[in-house]
Amino acid sequence: MSAPFEERSGVVPCGTPWGRWYQTLEEVFIEVQVPPGTRAKDVCCSLQSRRVALSVCGREVLQGKLFDSTIADEGTWTLEDRKLIRIVLMKTNRDAGNCWTSLLENEYAADPWVQDQMQRKLTLERFQREAILLRIICMLNFCPCQNPGFDFSGAEISGNYSKGGPDFSSLEK
Known about the structure:
GO molecular function, one term: unfolded protein binding
Function: May regulate the LIS1/dynein pathway by stabilizing LIS1 with Hsp90 chaperone.
Subunit structure: Interacts with LIS1.
Radius of gyration: 18 Å
Subcellular location: Chromosome, Centromere, Kinetochore; Cytoplasm, Cytoskeleton, Microtubule organizing center, Centrosome; Cytoplasm, Cytoskeleton, Spindle pole
Protein name: NudC domain-containing protein 2
Strand order of the largest sheet: 1-2-3-8-7
């Protein structure tokens, strides 16, 4: 299964029988294809910290224990164009080392290649955020930055990037 890493959008999708799911450092997105013309009143969606349940027109589409915990109060679902349900879950653990390998505990696992691409993407996202923070710190300290734009969208990572890549927090400033 091929799942291209779309640098700008940050999407490494994992295909499922009902649609796809993907993740960022902070969120997990679930996209479910539904019959055209589906109305919101046809949808029953329950989002809890560790569980998700979705049925459409009385038919169960998705149900089970999530791979990891989420912030239940921040989970949302929308019906788009009456043919796509998008569920957005906010991860409780938001570091690059928290790459979900499956949507549910024992279902909808990404194959090893897709997992690798997801981990690379989350690591690049972490590097991008750290570069932005460094730039802000530099600006606040009136430090002239040599690189005005830190753009990692075309970057490639080789080596050890598991668990979010190397930890630079111990480096002296």
